[in-house]
Every structure is written in C-alpha cells, then in structure tokens.
Amino acid sequence: MKRITQKEINKIVQEKRPEPLSLGESPPIFWDHSAHLFELTRIGQTTLAADHLLFPEINGELSKTVGDFIRRLHPLFVTSRPISKDSPKSFSQNLSFRQYAYEVLLEMALNFHGLESRWLDPEEKARCLPFILHTLEEWEEIEQKEGECSIASAVIEKWLLQMKRVQKGNSMVAKTALRIEEALESGKPLFPQFLKKAEEEIKSNIYYQMVNQGLCRFGNDYALGLRWLRHLGYEQVSTNPVLAARAYQDDPSLIEIFREEVRRHPKFGQWRTNPSRYAEEIALFATLLALWENLYVFRPIFFNLRETSGGGVVSFQLNPNIAHLVEESIRDVFLAFSLAQEKLSLYDQYLLAGYRTKGDRGRPNLVIKVAATGPSARTITRMINSYGFGSNITVDFSVSQEATLLLEEMEGMAEAIRKGIRPTQLYMTNMGGRLESHLREV
Asked: Per the confidence metrics, is the pTM higher than 0.90?
C-alpha cells in the first residue's frame, strides 16, 4: 500500500460500520463482563459495550471491570499499529481495532458524565474516569511517537461530524459539537481536552440540571443526536415517517444501510419491480430501519425505569395515510412490534449478558402514536393497549379528546391485565401550543 494520508484515515473511520451481532460467530459472554466488553469492542459494537455498564447490578464491580477491560485492550492496541506497507487486510484490521478501542472508552466516559449513569455508584464512576482518561492519553502518545496518522483525531472528527449533522447544524446538539470543536487546541493531546469540554457542556446544560433536580422529564422529536440528549437526561423520542425521512437526508450512512438491508427483505423482488404499488410497505420498512438505533439508545433507560416511573421508549407514529383505517393500522402495529421484538431479543442478550434481569427482555420499548382525529382512533387505542403495546395520543387539542381516549386506553390496559400482560407506559400529547399559534395567526 502507498503511504496513507490523514484525510484518507478520516474517511475510513467515518465509513466503518460494526459487524452485525451473531450468536453463532460472536456469542455473548455471560461469566465475565470485561471479556464481554472486549468481544463487543472487537466487532465494533462500541456503544453497546459502553451501555452494558449502565445497570446498577454492576455496582461494586464497576471499577474492577473497567480496569480489567483496559488491561485486555492495551496490549492489542500497542501491537495493532496500522502500517501502510502491510497488506490491505492487515492494515484495515489494525486501524479498526484502534478506532474501536478509542470509541468504546470515549462512549464510556460520556456515559459516566451523563445522567444515564445515575444508577451507578458515584464513587466508582469517579474512580473509572481517570483510568479511561489516562489510557486515552497514553494511546495518543503512542500514535504520536509512531509518526503515522492519528486515529484519535479521526475518531473525534467522526463523533463531531455526527453531532453537527443533526438538523443540518441548526440544533442544540450541533451547536454543542461546534463549541467542543472550538475548544480543541492542536499540538496537545485531544482526548483530555475533548472530555473536559464535553463534561462541561453536559453538566452546564439547563436540561441536565432540570432532570438532575427532578424538576422535569424530557423527550425529543427527532431521530438523530439521541445519545447526546440521553446524556442530558432525555428519556423518550417521538418519530414518524416524515422525521425518519429527514434523518435519511441528514445522515447519508442511513441510505447505505437501507440499500444493504432492503436487498435481504423477502419482498425485495416485488418492491423493486413495482415500487409504487408497495410504497406504503417500503416506507414502513425504511422508517423502522431508522428506528432501531433509537430503540437501542434508550434501552438502558427502559430497563432502569421499568419498575418506577417508566420511560426509555420510542414513540412511533402510524402511517398518516392509513391512520383512519383500523384494520390496516393494527396490521402495521403488529408488524412493527414483531420486527422490533426480533431485533431486541438478540440485542438484549448482549446488553444484559451476565446480569440477573429477566423480565421484559426482548419487549420493545415502543409505543404507538395515535392521532385523535376521528372515531377510528378510539378503536385503535383500545386494541393496541389490550395487547400491552402502549399508546401516545397525539393531535390532541381539547379536554374532551383527552378524556375520551384516556378511557379507551384504560379499557385496553384492563383487557391486557386480564390476559396477564403488563401494560406499557402511556403518553398523552396535548398540542394546545399549536392551536394557540394558529389562532394568533388567523
């Protein structure tokens, strides 16, 4: 291989995607948390690895687990030097391992600074953060001495780029990324600067402070940037086909994922032959594809809040083109939940490996948005709650709408209990603000 440039390294890091979870090829390790973290990191599942440490059952073992994990990572990081004259395969493997090693410790540190780790022992978290910071700083020094390009720089650039994409830069998340980027001084180790500024941005944020003081609970209405919002204490996201489409516009990698995944769909041949005929099915598939990462982000919150206030859910809106049709809407609900359950049953085996948590594994942290715009909303609301799916009533402007659909929700929940099904968190979205805005304009 010819000598590679920093720009090329950045491109490789940005385009790299994790290997899919596979029980056959990389099964979860239940008896050793640090070994499990290492295997997840090896296949690029770095956010999943970081989130594995967000459960209170790890208290008492957290600092030891993080230390053991770093012990496993360090020798391979040192020996995984990507050298241009190596074979393309060897170069790629070494670069990827270093990238994943940086990413997993970065995500762990951000989790420990964020409110998603409020169930962990504060003293143990405080012991872990210097371990992580010292290791990252040492790895940067190793790269600097090697004289090759900086993978550390590429990882941070990728992280910042993902943040800046949210709403094409016109968002709190994107503005935060710009402030972090501006705080980084060249010629100095990047990760200490990055993590110091990131911690400052998290803990000085008004949303973090309000959640931390128990004043309010927050959700979001956009499909990207959710990990950062989770650090601030957000615990819910609302999405629909329109927001999913915007996510595809803002994040080009979603389009590539769609192209890969759609070819594996059993109806791909029919869809490709006559896309207009199957437009609604394709739209549902594309929306759900953008939805999976949202479910994963809030999965730890879902489990940690399930016995108390509930939360950590994704609110998914039915296709507005068929929202007035009961049978078609219910069909989409069952399809969405079936696919989500299949995805999450696999994901939870890795997220919860080695923990005693049993209940609700594989249960989708998903509720269905139902527009309170017609008689069909009553039937749909009652039916989906009767199976424990949960609902979020939207396009709701009046007390009469709320009262009517609350009664339908309660009837559905009662039916679920009669089946032995534990009901899901419910939401009622009052849109009085939109009504007032409209009235002021007219």
From this structure: yes
